[in-house]
Amino acid sequence: MNRAPWGQASWGGIRCEEHKVNPQLVRLLIGRVGLSLVTLLAVSAVVFAATLFLPGDPARAALGPRADPTAVQSLRREFGLDRPAVSQYASWISGVVVGNFGKSIPSGHPVLEMIRSKVKNTAFLTIASLALLIPLSFVLGIVAAIYKDRAPDLLISVPTIVAVALPEFVIGTILIILFAVLINALPPVSLLDGDETLFSQANLFVLPILTLLATTLAQVVRMVRAVTIEVLSAEYIYMAELRGLSRTRIILFHVFPNVVSPSIQTVALNAAWLAGGVVVTEAVFQLPGIGSALAGAVTNRDTPTVLAITMIITATYVLINLISETLILLLNPKLRVKNA
């Protein structure tokens, strides 16, 4: 645990002096970026291979079971479905690199045009949930630790433990019954109007956001609480109290900085889960996002759309993990700087 001089902030356990960037940190960061790119490439290959084993013929599914065989074969040639799998993957991945995910087989329209609005809806839901998750988890976790085994701790810990055991669709259903049926304060479903801005329809996102918060907040709060309890028992916190530093100063400048680093990975895991966990939540509230788009693409055997959505989700996972690992490295005082 980082130990700070009394009366000084313990961000990384070092004071503001002249330092040079540690070459080891630079190498580690470059390695993390390279590993993330390799992971993304490997996942893309696996996802592409998996789509080849989806039941049915995409061209036949697009034209219907009674379509003329000549038309089916022509459509297969148009989308390159008659080429070897390796050739198809090479063409697809080269297009992805430049932002071209191909065209939807059933409609013939560019995939990104078809899913852009749904990706935007999901991104709005995810970012809003994450913007609330991070500050709330630290505030509740630290408060629960400060008042360990007392009323505030119980009021925070008991609901979070219960929430951990409940899946998203159960929590979503409970919220619908409570806020839409009994209180009649919020709409039970999130039927968005494409002609209106998302901010003007913010009330439609309240219940989905609460559902995502309930399923993710619990784990992060428990982690922050455990780390905070450990920090509060450290010797330097005791010495800071003996020096007469206010409780608020100790929490802000000595406890909180030392809680952030160990909790980053837990926050990142839950943030990454949000990228995929929204699928169930969107289904519960009928919110038109990537979940419904992915389900429809699989049903219609629309391989390019399936690939695009899965790669967007995968890229989000990889990016969040890369950011969390970078923050952990930057907060490590042994790696972050090198004394001049």
From TrEMBL:
Domain ABC transmembrane type-1: start-end pairs: 119-324
Designated name of the protein: Binding-protein-dependent transport systems inner membrane component
Subcellular location: Cell membrane
Gene Ontology terms: biological process: transmembrane transport
GO cellular component, one term: plasma membrane
Primary location recorded for the protein, binned into one broad class: membrane
Family per record: Belongs to the binding-protein-dependent transport system permease family.
TM regions (residue ranges): 29-54, 123-147, 154-182, 202-221, 267-287, 307-331
InterPro entries per UniProt: BPD_transp_1_N, MetI-like, MetI-like_sf
Top-level taxonomic group: Bacteria
PANTHER family: DIPEPTIDE TRANSPORT SYSTEM PERMEASE PROTEIN DPPB-RELATED (PTHR43163), PEPTIDE ABC TRANSPORTER PERMEASE PROTEIN (PTHR43163:SF3)
Keywords from the UniProt entry: Cell membrane, Membrane, Transmembrane, Transmembrane helix, Transport
Organism in which the protein naturally occurs: Caballeronia udeis
Membrane topology annotation: Multi-pass membrane protein
